[in-house]
Description:
Helix content: 25-40%
Shape: globular
InterPro entries: Chitinase_II/V-like_cat, Chitinase_insertion_sf, GH, Glyco_hydro18_cat, Glyco_hydro_18_chit_AS, Glycosyl_Hydrlase_18
CATH topology of the domain at 2-198 and 272-320: TIM Barrel
GO biological process, one term: carbohydrate metabolic process
Protein name: Putative catalytically inactive chitinase-like lectin
Keywords: Disulfide bond, Glycosidase, Hydrolase, Lectin, Signal
Pfam family, one: Glyco_hydro_18
Low-confidence stretches: 327-372
Amino acid sequence: DPWLDLEDNWGLGTIRRFNDLKSSNPNLKTLVAVGGWNEGSQRFSTVAQNPILRKRFALDAARFCSYHGFDGLDVDWEYPAQRDGDPTIDRENFVTLLADLREEFSKRGLLLAAAVAAAESSASISYNIPEIAKYLDFINLMAYDLHGPWESRTGHNAPLYIGPHDNTTNKMQLNVNSSVNYWLSQGAPAWKIMLGVAFYGRSFTLRSNNEHGVGAPTSGPGQAGQYTYESGFLGYNEICEKLAADKWNQCWDADQKVPFAYGGSQWVGYDNVESLSLKCDFIDQYELGGVMLWSVETDDFHGRCGEKFTLLNMLNERLFGSPANTSTTPSVPPSITTDASSPTRTTTTTQTTVTMTDTSTTTQQSHSSDSDEFVCVTMGYFRDPNSCAKFYYCDNNGSRF
């Protein structure tokens, strides 16, 4: 989003403001993510199978990170060989894509991470684990969304251990313990694994208010929250307010080591201070690299249920021995201006991210401002990156005219 992310044309400059957090924490490393659930798999698959497009993506991504002050990239392809990708070639092409990224990123001292499916049932389809581990600095294990309103019975979003209702091979894989042990057994180094934790819960509408345990029948997703506006999803800040103001009942699942709550026809499985503390114990036990969280804006950042940033502070205290520095406002330097003789930020630069992340925007041709050969990514008419008087037509086979 050029207006939100950049400063050109009176934009809000979110990227610069985000990276300015380093002024209050000099040890902070920032990564930009590309992909996500809404992006899907098709365009990743297209790029990964084409050597020219792979190299171009790696070069553009490295330049984007360096130009905007990021320390690296998080590749969030959800998921290789699944959804609208190619099940016959994506698994190995993902390895090749990461190898090309690693080569380019190493030249600039940039970090490379990937957000990956946690459970064996999905990870075994998408990843050659020992091979992708060679090229990644961090493996961000998305150990959440293991159950949700797409199912017909209540289930925890991110259970730590197996539960009594997990009575099939697939269900037995849907917990943190099984997921981490699978990745370790397949050759992922423990110190590269960042255990993903959720600052939200998955919610359901109960079929009967009288059945409200784990495994209770449901009629669909839970009602949308007052801040997140998404059915089947409640941020921790929304959950804690419902516990306090709406007098929801909070319960603890002794088998799976996570809480759930219900009120009337509504039910939610989530994480709180107690369950995240146990996950920190788990991280220590397996000597994992650390934690990845999704995401800070659904923490209780206003402190309406207690201290501000309840979950973030707890994680920092457990893992680093001190709470997060959430009270310091980073200084914001003056807006950057350029003249005609200096490099300028153009729409060519922003396409590096728009191409792969913005599903609401028409796919753009991705290229750099260098005098490299123009490469067709998608069908249509495109201006030459070095001449406003020259245009190309790209057909659906990648040829240009």
